[in-house]
Amino acid sequence: MENYNQMSTDFILLGLFPPSIIGLFLFILIVFIFLMALIGNLSMILLIFLDTHLHTPMYFLLSQLSLIDLNYISTIVPKMASHLLNGSKSVSFTGCVIQSFFFTTLAVVEALLLTSMAYDRYIAICFPLHYFIHMSKRVCVLIIAGSWIISSINAHAHTVYLLHIPYCPSRVINHFFCDVPAMVTLACMDTWVYEGTVFLSTTMFLVFPFIGISCSYGRVLLAVYHMKSAEGRKKAYLTCSTHLTVVTFFYAPSVYTYLRPRSLRPPTEDKILAVFYTILTPLLNPIIYSLRNKEVMGALTRVSQRICSMKM
């Protein structure tokens, strides 16, 4: 291993699982979760596309969330699987940087999209008469395009830094994917300035959006409390609680991970927390939004009936 580290430019990912029977069982579980996430998010995208009742701003944003989750989990799990099946933990420097770029881009896009979805619910409940003015098709497209552009610029800045720092001979990354902070620990230079930029980036794209989401839902809950219709209150509470569940699963572990100084971040804890926002969240999002949403379940019934009638 020592000679390999001295002569190779490849990185070595230690992975998530220990080489044991328990590790193999957990790996099979992760692959199962990956397949279920693919099926769930693809089904959500197709359902929203096929059912005209779901052609609204809220479900357009939800379809984009499913698309992001689809790419998000695909950036991580297939590489993990290939490493375990091939018995090799090495990843090229270029491959590591590319994975880091896509992961960072998708993570920020998802954070901004969840914020946009909170804004959508805020307008729908607090200003229902102005909903289709503030959330027109043009506005939705601008939100999506802006999220991707901002996220790409942010990821590009981090990637450029990774490409230009000197790395120590030991290329062992104690993680299951090429996470930027995990790669920076291998730098043979003082990185405190860059760690400050990571803190700033996390604050801008995770903390501020989370505060915005919290304020939006605080205002929404106040408006729901004053609703005269019991059915309207129930529907609003259900929609908001669904979105807040998704937000908590994504934001809580992400903020806790990236805001802490490097000295207070045990690698094992980082990997466990990363499972929540890289693997579990893409699985849970379509489940939460379908099982707890009568409109989605109704659309599923209609599309299923339509398919069955076509076969007959």
Automatic annotation (TrEMBL):
A GO cellular-component term linked to this record: plasma membrane
TM stretches of this protein: 20-50, 57-77, 97-119, 139-157, 199-224, 236-252, 272-291
Pfam families given in the database record: 7tm_4 (PF13853)
CDD domains: 7tmA_OR2T-like
Membrane protein topology class: Multi-pass membrane protein
GO molecular-function terms, A-Z: G protein-coupled receptor activity; olfactory receptor activity
Keywords annotated in UniProt: Cell membrane, G-protein coupled receptor, Membrane, Olfaction, Receptor, Sensory transduction, Transducer, Transmembrane, Transmembrane helix
Domain G-protein coupled receptors family 1 profile residue range list: 40-289
UniProt-listed InterPro entries: GPCR_Rhodpsn, GPCR_Rhodpsn_7TM, Olfact_rcpt
Subcellular location as annotated: Cell membrane
Family designation: Belongs to the G-protein coupled receptor 1 family.
Biological function: Odorant receptor.
Protein known as: Olfactory receptor
The gene coding this protein: LOC100453739
